């Protein structure tokens, strides 16, 4: 018989969520919206500069929620994406499914399912978007970096609650590679 989530499990969950909330940046278990996709994916494996995602619709896998606020993924992985191409979407967290052992007792068939508040990110490949904009007749190459960042957010994310600072180094690199002055 499956264990029933109880008050002790709630205490364990609260402790895990407190540790989880202290971690900055994209975490295994958080959500991401990829360009050209209508559904969201979750981060599955962290490679320091890159992070992998779930492999697509209906293939979310399972996330074990450890006592120290980390999640471990079991399931199919997609190709990694660069973390510097991620922008956190502010606002309400999205609830993600996870599990841990009932009363922290590790044994077969002793998992309890929980939901955890997760962050949401958008993946934006700056160089690709800027090249596409120029190809489509939008000459942004002479604009100031900050203005390009604001336009990228409006164009790519269609959302006004994102931070621009994360994009600035990528836009500067794009402009430097093309020998374009600000």
> Number of helical segments?
4
The span between the termini is: 65 Å
Percent range for β-strand residues: 25-35%
Largest sheet: 6 strands, mixed
In which order are the strands of the major sheet placed? 6-3-2-1-8-7
Task: Identify the overall geometry.
Answer: elongated
Poorly predicted regions are none
**What is the N-to-C order of secondary-structure elements (H for helix, E for strand)?**
HEEEEEEEEHHH
The structural class is alpha+beta
**Strands, count:** 8
Report the radius of gyration as a whole number of Å: 20 Å
On the 0 to 100 scale, the average pLDDT is: 82
Domains (count): 2
Task: Characterise the protein shown here.
The protein is an alpha+beta fold and 182 residues long. It has two domains: 7-123, no CATH class; 126-177, no CATH class. It contains four helices and eight strands; from the N terminus they run H-E-E-E-E-E-E-E-E-H-H-H. The chain has helices at 7-22, 126-135, 145-157, 168-177; strands spanning 31-33, 40-46, 50-53, 62-65, 71-74, 81-82, 86-101, 111-123. The strands form two sheets. The protein has a six-stranded mixed beta sheet with strand order 6-3-2-1-8-7. A two-stranded antiparallel sheet has the order 4-5. A hairpin with a 6-residue loop joins strand 1 (31-33) and strand 2. The longest helix is centred in the N-terminal third of the chain and has 16 residues, at 7-22. The protein is elongated, with a radius of gyration of 20 Å.
Describe the structure concisely for a colleague.
With 182 residues, the protein is α+β, with helices and mostly antiparallel strands.
């Amino acid at each position: 018989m499956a264990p029933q989530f109880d008050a002790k499990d709630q205490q364990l969950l609260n402790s895990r969520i407190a540790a989880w909330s202290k971690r900055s940046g994209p975490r295994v278990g958080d959500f991401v919206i990829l360009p050209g996709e209508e559904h969201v994916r979750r981060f599955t494996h962290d490679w320091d500069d890159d992070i992998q995602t779930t492999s697509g619709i209906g293939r979310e896998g399972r996330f074990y929620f450890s006592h120290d606020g980390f999640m471990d993924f079991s399931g199919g992985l997609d190709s990694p994406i660069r973390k510097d191409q991620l922008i956190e979407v502010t606002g309400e967290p999205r609830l993600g499914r996870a599990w841990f052992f009932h009363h922290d007792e590790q044994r077969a068939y002793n998992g309890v399912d929980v939901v955890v508040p997760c962050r949401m990110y958008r993946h934006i490949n700056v160089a690709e978007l800027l090249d596409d904009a120029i190809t489509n007749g939008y000459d942004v190459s002479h604009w100031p970096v900050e203005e390009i960042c604001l336009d990228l957010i409006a164009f790519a994310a269609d959302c006004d609650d994102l931070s621009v600072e994360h994009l600035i180094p990528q836009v500067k690199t794009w402009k430097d590679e093309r020998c374009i002055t600000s």
